[in-house]
Amino acid sequence: MIKVNKFFFPYFIFLILIGFKGQIIMAFLIVIFHEFVHYFTSLILGFSGFAIEILPIGARLALKGIDEVSPKQDIIISLSAPLFNLIMAIFFYYLYKNYKFNYSFLLYKGNLTLGIFNLIPAFPLDGGRILRSILSLKTIYKKANEITIKTSIIQGLILLCISIILIIFNINNINIIAIALLILYSSKKEKERIVYIIMGDIIKKKYKFLKQGYIENKNLSINYKNDLITALSIVDKNKYIIFTVLDNDMKFMDIIYEEELIEGLKIHGNITIEEFINIREENIY
Questions:
Q1: Checking DSSP bridges between strand 2-4 and strand 50-55, what pairing results, if any?
Q2: Which DSSP letter does residue 3 get?
Q3: CB contact at 8 A, 255 and 245
């Protein structure tokens, strides 16, 4: 399914009015090929089903089950298309230098720009997913996501400042402004959806366990005064978490399983772990 973002056509018409024509069509063709490389790489890794959203400055591929990928798989999928663009840039540069084919220089420049641009470590670019996945290999998913969001926001603000400076010196570059706003908007949306991703991950782990027949466990000790959302925020994306609840003297109180967090939030709201344990014991007896 192909979906066109509501800001695409006004932006497209604006660029035509200020002089861009054939270059825009060529640029979007390069972007579409870029997204299909992601798609075919995902197919090789066992993922299927996709939707392409045409954005004002490119396109975005949404894959079915993409949030279920491991950090290593995500790095491979995210890195595949920028590498493809860089390889195509070398190919078209060779054609330009040796045969002077029509449009070969524009294709070289377009692929080189897109390849390097997408390696910027900011959402929603491939570099943002790559950075988050690399960090996920060393820490929990939520923390990796938070670091990447902060990095994205800083880069978006820097680009916005650069665009303002260019305007002051009468150098207008609408693309820099569009990129800066897209990074800031995407970072905000990513921050809002993280809790829902974690809750979804907990639910999906059951199906993953039934499909594979096993799942890796991870034990974490947590203070009984923390609330359920705090516990939920440190759930690992790819491991089944068993929480050992300790008091302030680090003495054992109880054990909580991650699916109990969702059930507790659904029934009682964001209560403390201590309150949840007491309610659970009352229900048992």
A1: parallel
A2: E
A3: yes
User: Where do runs of H (alpha helix) occur along the chain?
Assistant: 8-17, 22-44, 71-99, 104-117, 126-136, 141-168, 174-212, 228-233, 258-268, 273-284
Closest CA to 92 of 110, 78, 79: 110
The predicted-structure confidence for 55-110, as pLDDT tens digits, reads as follows 555 555 555 555 567 788 889 999 999 999 999 999 999 999 888 777 888 889 88
Mean pLDDT on 242-265: 90
What pLDDT is recorded for position 22? 56
Instruction: Give all strands of the β-sheet with 58-63 in edge-to-edge order.
Output: 2-4, 50-55, 58-63
How large is the average pLDDT for residues 214-243?
86
What is the C-alpha separation between 228 and 104, in angstroms, rounded? 57
Helix (H) or strand (E) holding 255: strand 252-257
pTM reported for the whole predicted model: 0.70
Structure tokens at 49: 């089903």
The amino acid at residue 36 is F
**Using one digit for the tens of pLDDT, what is the confidence trace for 26-70?**
777 787 788 788 888 888 887 765 555 555 555 555 555 555 677
- 3-class state of residue 78 by DSSP: helix
Q: What pLDDT score does 55 carry?
A: 59
Angle at the Cα of 164 (from 158 to 166), degrees rounded to 5?
A: 105
DSSP code of residue 133 = H
List all residues 6 or more positions away from 119 whose beta carbon is below 8 Å from its beta carbon.
82, 125, 126, 127, 130
How far is 115 from 84, CA to CA, in rounded Å? 8
